[in-house]
Design goal:
This protein is an alpha+beta fold. 16% of the residues lie in helices and 43% in strands. The N and C termini lie far apart (74 Å).
């Protein structure tokens, strides 16, 4: 009988350790890497992060969030996470006037500067760090076909992809 109790107690304690050892949320990962938690909107269903900083975030649906400008998030957002920056970003676009610019990278120059920079290939868009303090609600795209990809001539071999809001 004491052996059964010991085994049962060991099993219960083992399960408690597994439950308590939950991985951090993507928002905690961003914060630990010097980035504001609100760079990824609410609605994350899961995410992966490997030892090299490659990440993929899965949202329940493609959506737009309003910050200083409108930001579009695909259902899957990926990139490489480094301290103070996201590189090789895929799945995020920033709107300026009526054009959608795919975001290639995001960086916080110096956290005390209060600025976040979105690299959209041709230029950088500057946002207030405080705009991304908390994850925003993200509105589902009712008609995703309103975002039409077009190529814009550039001085580089790989012309940046612009998205035109029709």
């Amino acid at each position: 009988m004491p052996l059964r109790c010991s085994l049962l107690l060991g099993f219960v304690l083992g399960m408690a350790v597994i439950v308590l050892a939950q991985p951090p949320s993507i928002y905690e990962v961003l914060s630990a890497n010097g980035l504001p938690m609100g760079l990824i909107p609410r609605g994350v269903t899961d995410y992966t992060l490997d030892d090299y900083g490659r990440f993929e975030v899965h949202l329940g649906q493609a959506c737009n969030a309003k910050f200083e400008d409108e930001i579009h998030f695909d259902m899957n957002v990926s990139g490489v996470l480094r301290y103070g920056q996201m590189e090789e970003v895929d799945g995020i676009a920033a709107q300026d006037l009526f054009l959608w610019f795919p975001v290639k990278g995001i960086r916080v120059d110096v956290p005390s500067s209060g600025l976040v920079y979105f690299d959209v290939g041709v230029v950088s868009k500057e946002f207030s760090f405080s705009s991304f303090d908390t994850p925003r609600e993200c509105t589902a795209i009712v008609h995703p076909e309103h975002i039409l990809p077009i190529r814009v001539p550039d001085h580089h071999d790989d012309a940046p992809l612009l998205l035109l809001d029709s």
